[in-house]
Amino acid sequence: MERFTSSVTDSSLLYGNTHILWLDQPQVLNNCRPGEFLMTYIGDGHDPLLGRALSIHRLREGINGPEFGLLFDVVGRGTHWLAQRNIGDQISFVGPLGHGFEVRPRVNQMLLVGGGIGCAPLIWLAEELIADDRNVTLVLGGRSKEQIFPSQLLPPEIEIVVTTEDGSLGEKGLVTGPFKRLLPWSDQVFACGPDPMFEALYQVTKQAGSGKSLQGLLEGRMACGFGICYSCAVFPKKGGVRLICTDGPQFDLKEIYS
User: How far is CA 253 from CA 13, 204, 218, 250, 257, in A?
Assistant: First the structure.
């Protein structure tokens, strides 16, 4: 974990209300993995004071060297400020933080489930899995087509299943529908999205009697990002307290909901 500053190399509204920033990649991110995150410090001076936790979306080779991407919905003052950054502007970060996804060796059928902006870290994971010659199915869900990551921006090797609550794109309904169908096919499952989606996915695995682990990348508001403030505490049903920033953000959902 280090504090660093990176310059914006590209900034655009990608789809709907979802923005993407690309920035110069420092060496500290060379060995990070999908699911890890950065505390992103926004605003001019100390307003606002607290950072925002954002998953690392992707890595790529830019014109002038390695770059990392941040994908986020523009929903408040902080994300609006980020979306207004121009090429050459600098942003401060602390990271990489947290524990990312854990991919088992010698398994091949990989099922990824993203709800809304939960697709952000899963797309990088999907690219890594494809590069490792694994079969990947990515289920993307949202309220409408404006919340679905454009399929043409994904590697063609990824099988994509889309669900929207209003039926404007793909299957009408929730991600639990295709998840239930694909669960028997999968060797390993990864998910990112809102808490109600996680609990629904867990209930599907429980009803199916599946013993497979379901790795969920939990989201939560964080003031520090490294275990001091306890603002991202979660409370498993069996008792105790876990912190998304240091114990996660990746958890086996059985640990949380069983």
Answer: 32, 12, 9, 9, 6
